[in-house]
């Protein structure tokens, strides 16, 4: 288990305020974050730009030293024994950097593998296997500069797995990838956690991705923890509203007056639009209103053309949360 | 074993990365050859008789040998300034951060990097130098086995020097100024084309700030003056001490640079 307690990171910036004079300025990037990742689990880290996600990931990867706080991985103190930790973790960032562009995929992997002390046939097998796994077998010996963005990103994943880490930190791994490639990557991440029993931390601005993959989610704001729960419970607690969308044969004025009264009595907020198809109703209520609405339509034999119940998703939850925070 | 593994990794990488452009050999071969020819013929028009000021320091008939050894040693050192300068690329590309993400011993990586770049950078000019020396003749060596020793001294010093420069580039994205410090001044003050002994005092003081000065001194003592080991014991000791200081400094600086990077996150600034 990875356990971070009260992680704090302040960046000190020296600002020039004259020829020789310098003013010190502190940026509080992460401010007392508690975080745990178990093996076999995918954990999401969410927050707006500048919330401190990358800073957190770099601290977990031992690339940044926390200003204060503790970090231990499977019982090893990461701040005291970074060397031992580095063997068990790896980090992958989105984008096209962090690779040698003039080297081929295989050469990149061989190089980084050797820095982890791999050699000989063990190294060769590991590289072959990873190249196959990320689907770069055909272009493994071409220079990386000739790869597409998606291929570079897949190579990054392979690089991040070269030391067969127990914990993997992914900083926006699907940044700028098109839908099929991103889906492929998501499948790979899921397998790594569920089949290979790796502990995974993931940041992403694509919320469907987080909702689909993550067992639980940390939402941070300005370096503070705002919320920590499973995606389902976050949605349930934040977005109470359910939306039902209905299109039916055009309603008479009398029917509409009756229906509106009934809906109002049940606490269902309704909006009516006349379309070419017929009458369209958007209904919102803090409970699942499908059954009640259908019962009402039976009473007067309304003819339904279409009925669609919309489940709120993580994105709705995050937007609602942001709105609430604005109000405070 | 880990040592060899890291050196091998760096060799493979630099071969593909730094030398895949043939133009690279232009600056590492054609350019120094021109420099050699240029300085050789620059001395020609002067009256370099037995009573010339220069001949007090370099026997006139050995001028060619003096210059070619100078150029050879300079190329060893200069090529590593170039390779250190390429650390800037690793920083920009983010690969430096990934190297620091691995548990590989950092100082070892720095020195391996220098060693890996050295062989590839100097082999072509070395062949030229050997052929020139054979052609010119006038080699004066006490024992034949001193020649491989001289080569090893030259290589080891260059590697230590290169590793040290690599660590300096860990600190700052603005270390490019080293390029200007080391190009012409190192060639001039280290006595590549002029004997250091002929310098005025102030220039001598600068000269001894460059390890290349010490290396060249020893190299020329062996191949030009036919000195044996005991005669060059003192300069060897001095060189050894200087290299030791550079190694120790590299160890300390690498640790400090990493600590600094971990505190400020400056590896992502470029
Ligand atoms: N090296 C640095 N020096 C100074 N300040 C920094 C440094 N790196 C990040 N910061 C600041 O720390 C804060 C958190 O940045 P961080 O990169 O962790 O955010 P993030 O959540 O990853 O944002 P994004 O979604 O845009 O990637 C920001 O205010 C940023 O300006
Ligand atoms: Mg970020």
From TrEMBL, chain A:
N-terminal signal peptide: none
The keyword Nucleotide-binding appears for this protein: yes
Keywords linked to the UniProt accession: ATP-binding, Nucleotide-binding, Transport
Pfam families: ABC_tran
Alphabetized SUPFAM superfamilies for the sequence: P-loop containing nucleoside triphosphate hydrolases
Alphabetical list of InterPro entries matching this protein: AAA+_ATPase, ABC_transporter-like_ATP-bd, ABC_transporter-like_CS, ABC_transporter_ATP-binding, P-loop_NTPase
SMART domains (alphabetical): AAA (SM00382)
ABC transporter domain ranges (all copies): 2-247
GO molecular function: ATP binding; ATP hydrolysis activity
Cross-referenced PANTHER family: ABC TRANSPORTER ATP-BINDING PROTEIN (PTHR42711), ABC TRANSPORTER, ATP-BINDING PROTEIN (PTHR42711:SF18)
Protein name, as recorded: ABC transporter
Organism expressing this protein natively: Sporolactobacillus laevolacticus DSM 442
From TrEMBL, chain B:
Organism field: Sporolactobacillus laevolacticus DSM 442
Top-level lineage group: Bacteria
Domain ABC transmembrane type-2: 23-257
Bilayer topology: Multi-pass membrane protein
Presence of keyword Transmembrane helix: yes
Family: Belongs to the ABC-2 integral membrane protein family.
Pfam families: ABC2_membrane
Cellular-component GO terms for this entry: plasma membrane
Listed name of the protein: Transport permease protein
Spans through the membrane: 23-43, 63-81, 118-139, 145-165, 177-199, 205-224, 236-257
Lineage: Bacteria, Bacillati, Bacillota, Bacilli, Bacillales
One MF annotation (Gene Ontology) recorded for this entry: ABC-type transporter activity
Subcellular location: Cell membrane; Membrane
Keyword tags: Cell membrane, Membrane, Transmembrane, Transmembrane helix, Transport
InterPro entries to which the protein is assigned, alphabetical: ABC2_TM, ABC2_TM_bact-type, Nod_factor_ABC_transporter
Cytoplasm keyword on record: no
Major localization class: membrane
């Amino acid at each position: 288990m990875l356990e971070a307690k009260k992680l704090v990171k302040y960046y000190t910036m020296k600002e020039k305020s004259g020829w020789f004079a310098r003013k010190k300025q502190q940026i509080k990037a992460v401010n007392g974050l508690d975080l745990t990742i178990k093996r076999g689990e995918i954990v999401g880290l969410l927050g707006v730009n500048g919330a401190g996600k990358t800073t957190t990931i770099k601290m977990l990867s031992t690339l940044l030293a926390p200003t204060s706080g503790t970090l231990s991985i499977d019982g090893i103190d990461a701040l005291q024994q970074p060397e031992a930790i580095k063997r068990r973790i790896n980090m992958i960032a989105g984008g096209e950097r962090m690779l040698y562009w003039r080297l081929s995929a295989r050469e990149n992997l061989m190089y980084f593998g050797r820095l982890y002390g791999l050699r000989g046939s063990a190294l060769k097998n590991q590289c072959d296997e990873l190249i196959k796994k990320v689907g770069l077998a055909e272009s493994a010996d071409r220079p990386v500069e000739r790869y597409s963005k998606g291929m570079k990103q897949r190579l990054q994943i392979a690089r991040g797995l070269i030391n067969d880490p127990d914990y993997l930190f992914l900083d926006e791994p699907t940044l700028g990838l098109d839908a099929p490639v991103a889906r492929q990557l998501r499948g790979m991440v899921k397998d790594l956690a569920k089949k290979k029993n790796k502990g995974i931390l993931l940041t992403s601005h694509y919320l469907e991705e987080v909702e689909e993959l993550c067992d639980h989610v940390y939402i941070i704001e300005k370096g503070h923890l705002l919320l920590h729960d499973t995606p389902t419970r976050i949605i349930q607690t934040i977005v109470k509203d359910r939306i039902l969308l209905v299109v039916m044969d055009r309603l008479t004025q009398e029917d509409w007056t009756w229906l509106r009264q009934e809906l109002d009595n049940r606490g269902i907020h309704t909006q009516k639009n006349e379309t070419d198809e017929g009458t369209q109703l958007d209904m919102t209520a803090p409970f699942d209103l499908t059954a009640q609405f259908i019962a009402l339509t039976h009473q007067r034999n309304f003819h339904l053309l279409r009925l669609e119940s919309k489940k709120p998703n993580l994105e709705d939850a995050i937007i609602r949360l942001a709105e609430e925070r604005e109000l405070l | 074993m880990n040592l060899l593994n890291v050196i091998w990794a760096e060799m493979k990488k630099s071969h593909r990365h730094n030398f895949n452009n043939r133009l690279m050999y232009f600056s590492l071969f054609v350019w120094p050859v021109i420099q050699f020819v240029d300085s050789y013929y620059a001395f020609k028009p002067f009256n370099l008789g037995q009573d010339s000021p220069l001949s007090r320091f370099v026997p006139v008939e050995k001028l060619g040998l003096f210059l070619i050894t100078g150029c050879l040693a300079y190329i060893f050192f200069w090529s590593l300034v170039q390779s250190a300068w390429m650390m800037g690329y690793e920083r920009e590309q983010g690969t430096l951060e990934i190297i620091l993400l691995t548990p590989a011993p950092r100082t070892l990586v720095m020195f391996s990097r220098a060693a890996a770049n050295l062989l590839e950078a100097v082999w072509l000019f070395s062949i030229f130098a050997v052929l020139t020396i054979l052609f010119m003749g006038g080699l004066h060596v006490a024992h034949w086995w001193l020649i491989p020793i001289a080569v090893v001294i030259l290589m080891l010093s260059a590697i230590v020097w290169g590793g040290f420069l690599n660590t300096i580039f860990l600190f700052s994205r603005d270390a490019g100024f080293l390029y200007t410090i080391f190009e012409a001044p190192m060639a001039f003050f280290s006595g590549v084309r002029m004997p250091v002994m002929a310098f005025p005092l102030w220039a001598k003081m600068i000269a001894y700030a460059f390890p290349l000065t010490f290396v060249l001194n020893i190299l020329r003592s062996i191949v030009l003056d036919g000195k044996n080991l005991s005669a060059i014991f003192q300069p060897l000791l001095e060189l050894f001490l200087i290299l030791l200081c550079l190694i120790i400094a590299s160890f300390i600086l690498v640790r400090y640079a990493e600590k600094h990077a971990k505190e400020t996150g400056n590896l992502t600034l470029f």
